[in-house]
Design goal:
Elements (H helix, E strand, L loop, with lengths): L1 H29 L24 E5 L2 E5 L9 E2 L9 H6 L11 E9 L11 H12 L9 E8 L10 H15 L3 E3 L8 E5 L3 E2 L4 E2 L8 E6 L5 E7 L7 E8 L4 E8 L6 H14 L17
Antiparallel strand pairs: 1-2, 3-4, 4-5, 5-13, 6-7, 7-10, 8-9, 10-11, 11-12, 12-13
Length: about 300
């Protein structure tokens, strides 16, 4: 009896082992094949004296390494969801690895007009900027800092000029506000000037008291007749601000600068300063700097 019981238990154990092995084989056959993830080598990145890494990428036609602490906000790369994109889209989005070939759509920084330097956190310029805010702006004195936004342009079919923009702005002013922008006889600092109804409010016959819709507009054309610089400036408010845009063909970029109108005479110098700053950030494909970085802490 005992011998029969032992045989039965032995058979049960053997059957259980066979089923277990069969089950394991079945599960393994269902398990998806594991993919081998290829490790992408991280590019060399420059650092500042505090160990902070530069922001890298390709701006227009040039690879750059932007010193840490310079960017106002963050750099946006081509393909990044917009600020107001669906949160679900943002959550799913995976940006490609940052390299010196990853196209940068836009970024911003602060530039000091008086000496061509840039604001960098944890650098003396941060102290200078704070001091100028406290000692100049409250007393209506000219603020020597300009807001700069750089846009990379990657559509070869899109013209690098403001020909249509200026034409359309003047059309909208006429159709919506019944304002004619008229070219002035005398250029200003090498710029062709247009003023709303020659600077006169037709309702009063006197100079405009508000510049909300009647900012002075100025342009500069290249030798081919294309508008490469487009500036509009306030003229009546306590803080007279100019919005200054220009294209650079070599870099394939559009630049927007905002500053106090008192610095308008230096518009050409400012354009040159911005390009000098960008040139100082250029690198080769391996990330080696081609010059001394302006703004590095």
């Amino acid at each position: 009896m005992k011998s029969g019981y032992k045989k039965i238990m032995l058979i049960v154990v053997l059957l259980w082992q066979v089923l277990l092995l069969a089950g394991c084989d079945h599960d393994l056959s269902k398990e998806p094949e594991k993919k081998v993830v290829e490790q992408v080598p991280q590019p060399f990145r420059n650092q500042d004296s505090r160990g902070r890494y530069d922001t890298i990428g390709k701006l227009g036609t040039q690879s750059i390494s932007i010193p840490a602490g310079v960017i106002d906000g963050w750099a946006r790369y081509m393909g990044d969801p917009g600020d107001f994109a669906d949160p679900k889209i943002k959550a799913r989005y995976q940006r490609p690895p940052k390299t010196y070939d990853l196209p940068i759509e836009s970024f911003g920084f602060l530039y000091r007009i008086t000496d061509g330097d840039v604001y960098t956190s944890f650098r003396k310029t941060e102290e200078d900027y704070r001091r100028d805010n406290e000692t100049l702006i409250p007393y209506g004195k000219p603020f020597p800092w300009a807001d700069v936004i750089i846009y990379g342009k990657y559509d070869d079919a899109a013209p690098l000029n403001f020909n249509f923009t200026v034409q359309d702005d003047f059309r909208v002013s006429k159709e919506i506000s019944n304002i004619d922008y008229i070219q002035q006889e005398q250029p200003l600092y090498g710029l062709t000037v247009y003023r709303a109804n020659n600077g006169i409010d037709p309702d009063t016959g006197e100079p405009w008291k508000s510049d909300t819709l009647t900012k002075d507009r100025m342009i500069k054309k290249d030798q081919a007749g294309n508008i490469k610089t487009y500036i509009d400036c306030q003229f009546t408010q306590h803080i007279n601000i100019c919005n200054h845009m220009f294209y650079n063909d070599y870099w394939h970029i559009k630049v927007l600068i905002g500053y106090n109108r008192v610095y308008l005479p230096q518009w050409q110098e400012m354009e040159g300063d911005i390009i000098n700053i960008l040139n100082s950030w250029r690198v080769n494909r391996e990330g080696k700097l081609l010059g001394k970085q302006i703004g590095k802490a």
